[in-house]
## 1
Amino acid sequence: MIWVDTIVQGILLGGLYALFAAGLSLVFGIMRLVNLAHGDLIIFAAFAILLITSTFGLNPFVAALIAAPVMFVLGWALQRFVLNRVLGKDILPPLLVTFGLSVALQNGMLEAFSADSQRIPAGPLESASVDLGIVTVGWMPLLTFATAIAVIIGLNQIFYRTALGRAFRATSDDPVTASLMGIAPKGIFAIATGLAMVVVTIAALYLGMRANFDPSIGPARLIYAFEAVIIGGLGSLWGTLAGGIIIGVAQTLGAAINPEWQILAGHIAFLVVLLVRPRGLFPRAVD
Amino acid sequence: MILETKALTAAYGQFRALFGVDVALAAGETVAIIGANGAGKSTLLRSITGVIRNEAGMVLHRGEAIGALPAEVVMQRGIAMVPEGRKLFPSLSVEENLLIGGQVRRAAGPWNLASVYELFPILRERRLVPGTALSGGQQQMVAIGRALMSNPEVLLCDEISLGLAPVVIRDIYAAMPRIKASGAAIIVVEQDIGRALSVADRVYCMMEGRVTLAAPAATVSREAIHAAYFGEAA
Ligand SMILES: Nc1ncnc2c1ncn2[C@@H]1O[C@H](COP(=O)(O)OP(=O)(O)O)[C@@H](O)[C@H]1O
Ligand SMILES: [Mg+2]
């Protein structure tokens, strides 16, 4: 019984990691850009939501709704004015630029919000739980997981059912030929990064409600996101969810055996999957 | 003239591929550009479409300098390209490959999904499979249909017969009269001289980055083409 409970908690935790990773996966899938500031952008969005809730006394979900379009514009501008200039055959410049952004964001947030640990108040939702018969789970983890699935379904709908998604896929396949279709690849990249920042805002909402955060923890979140994306198979969103779940379950199982093993167990699971399937669980057909 | 190049030069790094090319295309006209492998035909089309950016005045569309515009802007002016090697999008189905051709620009005109499927009926049957799962000839049909979907004013075709069996080439060229009749001005780049002359009003021959012959397709002599194509005295 305790094992079922542990595994269910792990699966639900995987939802949070999938949320961390979905934006990363989206951007990598479209423009082969690895954004090293992704974790810090999640923390930045969490501070933005916190600021909106505390300033206007708003519910955090409403605050996230306000933060999301702002983050879209910031993401769009980041891509349009910075990252598009360094994208090219050489993968090093974008890595260096996003690494620099990561450092700058951490320092900026330290100045603006201090090193104190913060949390987005979620009211009664924080401790509410529901009895599912075999196991009792918290509303918050359940809601996180459901949101992760909704985000992935939503992104897949955009990808496979809209003209914008068609342009995303075409540009990802071949930007030069996409431009012969009248599509501006750099404009598509900017929209994609904007969209990724909306996903980042959603991830930040749950991160901030479920745990304490401070300006320095972004890179640690980034590692889980990376691992989820890589073992899922680069560019596959459902694979990213599967990757998140594997890491989540490994962590809760590890913690059940010995609390000190939680983090290590996640990393070991990552390495094991990578050994067995070097291209991830659901690799893209074309690459 | 709907499209003109003026003393067009182009280079890949230090390597010069075009040395002052002048070609012109009138509305509704079909022009063939022939020449051996490496003559610079694809480079010419890439310069027109903006994949290679040049000095503005080197390419004119309706008299306006477009040589420095990016490819997406050139396309939106109504200049569509069937690129060498077809270049279908592997992540898109046949139908999506067609749709994306008319997604950003869709001028009024005869071409839409239904009329492209009428032109190439096999594509309707295979519309849901990935474009790259088709045979070479069918892929070429998708590439042509994709370019037609925007109802372009100028259609540029880069070696649409390359690598295809003669019967397949015949099928594809059988569609050319209907494409011409729809009103687009067309440039066909070919190594297959006979095919090119069969559809063209005028012909240019290129060799080593220069135009070596410009003549009406109906009256040009084999000797003149031979000389211009291979650079030998006629
Ligand atoms: N991407 C490229 N980089 C360097 N040289 C190129 C490139 N593409 C073509 N060339 C060179 O430019 C010349 C013209 O090529 P191209 O325009 O493709 O000829 P064609 O289409 O007539 O066969 C050739 O000598 C070719 O080797
Ligand atoms: Mg060529």
## 2
Amino acid sequence: MTQKLIIIGAGMATGRALEQLLKAGGDYDVTLFNAEPRGNYDRIMLSPVLSGDKTYEEIVIHTADWYEENGVTCRFGEKITSIDRAAKTVTADNGDVLSYDKLLFGTGSNPFIIPLPGHDLEGVIAYRDLEDTERMMGLGPDNKCVVIGGGLLGLEAAAGMAARGVDVTVIHIMGHLMERQLDEAAGYLLRKALVDKGITVKCSANSKEILGENGKVKALLLDDGTELPCDLLVMAVGIRPNVQLAQDAGLAVGKGIHVDDQMRTSDDDVLAVGECVEHDGAIFGLVAPLYDQAKVVAKTLMGEDAQFVQKELSTKLKVTGCDLFSAGDFAEGEDREDIVFRDPARGVYRRLVLQGNHVIGAVMYGDTADSNWFFGLIRDKTDIADMRDTLIFGPAYQGGAPSDPLSAVAALPRDAEICGCNGICKGEIEDAIAAGADDLAAIKATTKASASCGTCTGLVEQVLAVTLGDDFVIPAAASVCGCTDMTHEDVRRMIKSQKLTSMQAVFQECGWKTSCGCHVCRPALNFYLLADWPLEYQDDPQSRFINERKHANIQKDGTFSVVPRMWGGITTPSELRAIADAADKYMVPTVKVTGGQRIDLLGVKGEDLPAIWKDLNDAGMVSGYAYSKGLRTVKTCVGTDHCRFGTQDSTGLGIKLEKTLHGAWTPHKLKLGVSGCPRNCAESTCKDIGVICVDSGYQISIGGAAGMDVKETELLLQVPTEEDAIFVIKAVTQLYRENAKYLDRIYKWMAKVGLDWITEQIEDLENRADLVDRFEISQTVYRHDPWAEHVKKADTYQPLANLALEAAE
Amino acid sequence: MSDWIDIAALDAVPARGARLVKTAHGCVAIFRNAMDEVFALDNACPHKNGPLAEGIVHGNAVTCPLHNWVISLETGMVQGPDEGQVTTYPARVEDGRIKLDVAFLKQRAVA
Ligand SMILES: Cc1cc2nc3c(=O)[nH]c(=O)nc-3n(C[C@H](O)[C@H](O)[C@H](O)COP(=O)(O)OP(=O)(O)OC[C@H]3O[C@@H](n4cnc5c(N)ncnc54)[C@H](O)[C@@H]3O)c2cc1C
Ligand code: HEM
Ligand code: SF4
Ligand code: SF4
Ligand code: FES
């Protein structure tokens, strides 16, 4: 006997179920309800419709003719509003009551709308159906749109609109895009590709409020006060299974409608498929598993046995020019290994996550041709022991293709600046080579590249090698560490010329061989990035050595020492009292006067650090950065104030210098001295930067040291006023920050680039002013007291948990 | 049999960082790598007891802050030319919370 089947929702899942049921010859009289005023279409192809690559007609799956031929009664644009399971009837929104033998739910999901103030304004939409798509298609080059959500849907929406010339900004709350599918490295590449399409991407951004005018959206306001004007605001922040109707009908519902392996709900005559279901704790947001469910539900309706089994899923983003793929699991779990391959020349990144002899996760960007092969390895749990060494290169390379250390340089565009001093681009060097220059000396002579400070020598040699091939052999130079083949100088030039503003950018563009660097390269990169991109890059404490991370020097017995700044070596009775009080209160065993004219409290317990810092802060003192690769102290003599030989106010200048330089990070430690006359009581001539005051002004000399090497400073310049002296010192500090290799003190850097070059740079008044400008920009971020900040997160200095009291029976 | 006890939220430990858990028998360092996996190891370097929690975490290894020995977070083995091993304990993340196996406490009690 023909049974009555009512289907709620004409989506992709029920559409496939219907096809399967008809193919199997199911004896059902089918009535299909759909709230959307149309039948089943390929929802995942809405993005190509949005970008204009397809029309709606091309993505229809079931036409009116198809429904008619198959005898399906269609009630499109009609909603089921309630279900009476006892009577086995459903009620439609026009009041019709229909009876069923079997009922199939396919209600899909609802986009989640963040309840920000203003979320109900006109012009705030989700991205789910044709109506939403049409709203977006109504925008053009004169419009602005903000998309909240940097996941699959949000990015497809953004790219689709950008293709129509709309000015699009994507706001994403996490640190990198598509964080559920991609790791940071692939997220970086994706961001870069989207930015190239003209899309503005803001990560780690928190939306605060949607601003409107006359009931219509006008702008999005972020937590940090930024206002982003927009004509349309698209929220693509996730979906929630649409379970209301099922819940009202008394079916078992969790995150979704509970179904068993046969896709039956808690009522045997009611079945469910698609995004509305929850199976074995999981909910679904991609089509592949839904189609498996559809097959199973058709069998169940046929009275045949079938089981739905969850499988590994993979994701691809449908944005032209962004080839990415991710599958499996690359979060959580022990005993895992990573294999990373990067080819900066082609913008390729691949990472495999192995557990034992199995691939359990894969992320690919740029070249996804082999993605199916890798996906197969994951799905089939293939034992890869035999091909482990060459696995990452894909199926075609089972012989092994070594990564090319020169590919990063080969990838540079012709207008990439290689020599910063003389403004020489890669193209000019290539042209010189074409004109016959075939070694470094010839390049120097013809283009001036690497003829000044010389830090770009490595890159120039690589351009020679890339252009001349085997005819040029690069002299061996030490690379930063085992993670890369590039030298410090090369990496630094890349950071500047290619505007690399994040660690991920450096890893990718310079072809790092590890996924997140090591203890040798990370501190160096952290310094280069913050020195070259102070506003764009955010300091990463996890890439600093412990002394700098905690602003304290750890000692053998686990205690720390605390050194407050005494500007220019000057203190006051009240500061001294506060120091004495702190020493008493925290039972500091040793109070010592340092060689840097200040007081060291040695032997403070780790847990007490935030408290003692707070006490000293409250008395007006700040961290002395006593263990930093940054400004340490400015040692002074008493100068004109008290000394009968003094020519200038050396103490005053010292205080001013310490105040203006304080907080600045430098390649290595930076110590200054200011003496009031050539008797040099402040020992200025063995400091990194020393000032000797004379009647006619200030002699500034650099490159001194008094450590394992003892060096006397060499005269840089003499200037007439105190103001000039401060200006020159800031400029030379910035020059040092921008050019020296990490861990080179000024004297080492000077030995490489030469005092003449440094003097030339500083004597050029325009250049001097630019250096000072850049220094000041950086100081707007870094001239602050780390103690005050660490006091705010005092709890992180305590143990995470104390299990000492817990019984261990 | 494993019996997992709740320690803290995953977010309490910075990515590529570590925090300490105090036990009656000294401190255990809980490390978190860039992929949000966690590892528990004795907070003492086999070389000269350097505080590993203060080191730089890279990949699934930590570099001791005192003399740069590199220690695997998974096995506790010292990498490269140096030799030694740090005791490791079962740790995992569940629903954004860090869990340790209580068996580890017992292990420490007898150690
Ligand atoms: C823009 C976009 C791009 C996507 N891209 C991909 C992709 O690349 N790959 C991938 O695998 N997946 C993708 N997806 C997800 C995929 O489209 C969905 O997983 C799939 O369409 C869900 O199918 P469904 O049948 O469960 O629900 P739907 O297709 O949402 O169908 C549910 C239908 O039920 C109707 N309905 C709800 N309640 C009632 C009621 N009470 N009465 C009557 N009708 C009702 C709704 O109107 C709706 O038409 C994308 C989704 C979107 C929006
Ligand atoms: C790795 C090598 C070094 C280590 C581990 C080290 C360690 C220390 C320590 C623990 C202190 C605090 C001691 C105190 O306050 O009296 C200190 C301060 C000091 N060190 Fe070093 N030091 C090193 C290299 C140097 C070198 C090469 C010099 C000289 C150029 C130097 C000069 C000073 C001075 C002048 C102070 C007092 C600084 C201040 O007041 O901030 N140190 N150092
Ligand atoms: S350096 Fe000159 S001015 Fe300064 S204290 Fe010594 S003698 Fe006096
Ligand atoms: S001179 Fe040597 S012992 Fe003295 S503080 Fe400096 S590093 Fe330590
Ligand atoms: S104590 Fe760890 S390396 Fe020396």
## 3
Amino acid sequence: MTAALFALLFIQAIDSTPPRPAPRSIAVDERLAADAGLELGDRVVVASAPGGAGDTVIVAAITRGRADPSEVARADYRVRMHLDELQRLTGYGDRVDRFAVGTTSASATDSALRAINSAAFGFRAHRSRDIAVETSRTFLVVSRFHRAIGVITIVASAIFLLCIMLLKVDERRRDIAALRLLGISKRSIIRSVMIEATLVAVLGSAMGVALGWLASSIINWHYRGVYRTPLAFAVVTPGIVELAVALSLVLGLGAGLAAGRRLVRQPPLDLLTGRHESRRTARAAA
Amino acid sequence: MLFRLVWASLVRHRARTLLAVLGVAVSAAMLLDMVMLSSGMRASFKNLLLSRGFQIRLSPKGTLPFDTDATIGDAAEISARLRTIPDVITVSPVLGGQVYASAGGRTATAVALGVDPAVEGDYEIVTGRSPSTANEFVASDDFFHATGARLGDSVSVAAGFDPQLRAVTGQRTLTLVGRAHFIYMPAGQNSVALPLPTLQAMRGESAHDRVSLFMVRASSNDRVDKVLADIERTVPRVTAVSIETAMQQVDERLSYFRQLAVILGAVSLGVGFLLVTTLVTVSVNERLGEIIVMRAIGVARERVVLQVLLESSAIMLVGALAGLGLGLVTARYLNSILASFPGLPAAIDFFLFEPRDAWVALGLLAVAGVLAGIYPSWRGASLPIAVTLREEAVA
Amino acid sequence: MTRLLVARDVKRDYHMGGGGGLVHAVRGVSLDVDDGDYLAVVGPSGCGKSTLLNLIGGIDRPSSGSIEISGERVDTMRDADATRFRLLRVGFVFQRFYLMPALTALENVELPLAEAKVARKERVARARELLAYVGLAARLDHRPTQLSGGEQQRVAIARALANRPRLLLADEPTGELDAHTGAEMISLLGQVNGDGTTIVVVTHDEDLARAAKRVVHMRDGVVVDDRRQDGS
Ligand SMILES: Nc1ncnc2c1ncn2[C@@H]1O[C@H](COP(=O)(O)OP(=O)(O)OP(=O)(O)O)[C@@H](O)[C@H]1O
Ligand SMILES: [Mg+2]
């Protein structure tokens, strides 16, 4: 069982070593160490108020913060010190903010929770998981936002894909008309257009996955620097890859089918002479 | 005649043109949203900070307002000293804290602000009035809901809970005299405001003559810098934060969204641009024959360029106009998602529409539209006439 | 009679890509054409007739030699001037008509007028008049696809005459037409020349060549024969 007390501390580096019994140790996080130029063995004064009386302590460890999403974008520094010292410094008395309790198994957790809460003197026991959910609310919001933007992007790319397929097919109008006149069936033409669309989609999504992986590496590198955290901001998971590939396949096939059917509906002779176009323009102008 | 030709080539492939316009509309919507996102948050935060006219906030040395539980001591003295600084019009000390309120058997926790009721720096009265005696307070809508209390009710409010004694500490019976809108509070937050001395007394020794922050109003915006310097000199134990500094802090915290906005905005602009370029290039390629005949019978190169540029711009423009409407709708939706962002005042809009945003988005799209037409139009206009005519005759 | 066209030692070489060497399409043609003349250029396929016509019309440039029309050097003009020249000084008629498919007959004739910045009212009046002149008064609002080949070629002639050029250039104007429609075209060109427009026509059509006042024979990029026909 560990007890924790959180308090705001003020730290001041000192040069001279006051004649005192062996100072106690603290651990500072690497960001603080970097920003304040602290090194192992340095002596610093910790106090609960700026300029107030404090203790001289020695930096015994430099720690790296855990990847905690709830602390992203907060520039706070973290210092770990002996509980009794912090209690004394802050005048908190024999009090703590919370206890962390380890149990032997899931069922032990249940019974411990029940036991603690039934005997509680003004405090409550919570499952760590529940607390984690509460603290990650920011990220739920952000990921909902991302999802909404993802949907918009998908709509845009669907339109793009359809447009490109239409263009590609229109471009080959004459070849396809010639095939039709040679007696190739509508079905095989649609099939060939769809095979092409599928190939484009597969190649495109393979490149997209590679690009996505590259982009996520860059994003992680960038935001890790900005927020000084080891957190991963963008992760290409197998699920995402599956979704992306499936989506582009469905879209590609759909676009291919739509474009192919548009083609075979035209009489082949019209396709060959381009008469369908002018007829359409004539109709549009009428 | 020019417009006739542009129109003709746009309607020749109606499905294509329609798809392109749609595609542009979606990217325009995205672009507008991202332009709104990149500036909206800042603007709305600034509006919020300035909404009660306080240009300066003072917080404990080294902290941001309400960022930590730290407080400023000797509040009365600092207050008095601040008031002596020239150009300072109003000083509003604020102490924050958590309180437990019970009314009619229901208990709720609420964020309490100890304020100078005469100033009303943190809230606006919706109904009722501000506290006029030490034992009165106002509360937010959410508090009324959570406790079921009504205006005029007596509510038991406590500042703490002693686990050893299993009893509340610093308890008072206060009269609820007003319903207020708390400007800086997140949505769904139970909030109350009571006279500063009352809250200080309720919180006991730990809050004696202490406040969380001061809000300071200077006589005019251009006096702010001078007042800041004066404060730093007279009250060295506090950090004085101007709106600009606060904005910088917010920028840092929310830089993620701004960067996202820039990246996604650029991507959507690029996608729209690519779509139109592809489309217009293909359409010019299909019409090379017509274009070259026009050149042969004496139509100027510039006219051909203009025709193609008009074509690409028309697609962009119609798409952009549709996209602006679509963008406003999606911005509202996206804003409603981000509105539940924890810890931010409810009044913050991530997507704040300003006419400037629409102009920026439209301008970017117009430039993209013209750029999209440049390659194909250059291609169409620079073909050698005789050779191309011969090739067309063969094809 | 005044000189309209003076061509001196005109050559046109084509560079073939990929080291294919030079093709000498026109290898030194000198030609004088009087105002009001009607010239037919004939010769075997590939002898350089179309190339010569393109050079005269300013849509291609000679490799060497000079071409003057109404005292203006066509071969050295800047592109913008050449464009202006094509718009106002010459009219083109092509074997395949080359009308704008999206525009009506009337609009097709209006196109060069609009380009020359003729006011709308005047432009429509002139286009109607021209279409009536070529015998298509009833087909103003029809699109090229709704017209027969002969009718399309009439629209093309009306378009070529829109800005009252001194010179009409026609490359195989009867090439895509049957004998009967071709004959109509020949008489229309005769009428145009009769009304004062100089015509240079490239053709394989013997009937058309016979209708001209002067026939120039080409072979392998040079003029081999040039004779005036009896004004029959
Ligand atoms: N762009 C080009 N590149 C290469 N060679 C060319 C080009 N244009 C024309 N030629 C060549 O120049 C020669 C003359 O061509 P031109 O079209 O003038 O002949 P023509 O007399 O009009 O023939 P036809 O009666 O068949 O129309 C031909 O041998 C042709 O192959
Ligand atoms: Mg020829």
